[in-house]
Amino acid sequence: MLSIAQMKRSKSHLKAKAAAKQVEKVLENFHRLHPVHYQILNILEREVPLTLMRTSYALYDDVVPRLFEKINIGDTQRCRNIIRGVDVDCIPDPDVQEEKDEDEEDNQDLPILGLKNHTLAHTKYLRLSDLEGTIHLIANTQHCQDQPMCTCYKGELLVPPIFPAVTHISLNHFVVTGVLMWLTAEAEYQQWDSDHRIDEIFICLAKHTSDHLNTICLHWPEEWDYEYWNRSLEVDSVNDHDEFWSIKTGLNSCLQHIKTALPNKLVIIHLDIRELVSFDILDNMVTLDLTLVLDSPAKWANLRVIRTLWEHFHIITARHEVDHLPFKYSLPLSRGRRSSVEDFGRNVKPAFRARFERFRKHIVFADHQCECYREDSD
Question: Please, which domain of life does this record's source organism belong to (predicted)?
Answer without folding.
Answer: Eukaryota
